[in-house]
């Protein structure tokens, strides 16, 4: 006897994408009214500085839409961008959990007028590290904005794509929708309405087929996120740790008393604790931990012998 899935009463859409790709405008289209402030691609400055939330009930189904800040496109360093993305996505998941907003589907927003770049690919790889692998992609829909600017048909455009874009499309289970977010003439109004209906149907289909994505699952990838940040921090960390270890070695040569020795040993212990915590079991900073162990254990210098 086959079981019948309960009807879906709520969908939670989380908008993910770079500034200028039409993320906020897509949120407005999905809701059926303008609530999210839209940034034009020409400025490339993210208007969304906080996590913006709006909802609407359409045909008895509640749509929760979260619009976090744009990804990987600020004036900050790559490391700061990675940390910000991790923090923003963690906040979104906590808020969804606290508000008991279920039926999460991730909308990956991409501008159909743009060339899919290595930076775009890196952005989606970062998202995979933040949310995990399989079930994240099971809950994804690839949304292409600016359909109204396309020359030729969408099917023709889609069949012409190669490389990284086709890999991304496959990861999303071929769940791809092109939308028009403008309605400044009759043709665009009709296109916007039709593409919104298609987008909602694809999201519903994704929500029904895939298992639910929860805060518990997100938390299970905490170490993956820490390792992601560490990967991008390594160059600056290596420079910093080399400098501090050299300072300790120089200070050790100036030791004249037991008190001096104990002060240096304390500095070594504090630095090693920080490195161990930052390494998080990855082994990427093992060289620096070993170097500090040698400073503590070496008996070639009288100052480090425990009398």
TrEMBL record:
Alphabetical list of SUPFAM superfamilies matching this protein: P-loop containing nucleoside triphosphate hydrolases (SSF52540)
InterPro entries: G_AIG1, GIMA/IAN/Toc, P-loop_NTPase
Membrane spanning residue stretches: none
Residue intervals of the AIG1-type G domain: 8-222
Protein name per its UniProtKB record: GTPase IMAP family member 7-like isoform X1
Keyword Lipid metabolism: no
Entry-linked PROSITE patterns: G_AIG1
Organism listed in the record: Biomphalaria glabrata
Single Gene Ontology MF annotation: GTP binding
Keyword GTP-binding part of the UniProt annotation: yes
Family assignment from sequence similarity: Belongs to the TRAFAC class TrmE-Era-EngA-EngB-Septin-like GTPase superfamily. AIG1/Toc34/Toc159-like paraseptin GTPase family. IAN subfamily.
Keywords assigned by UniProt, alphabetized: GTP-binding, Nucleotide-binding
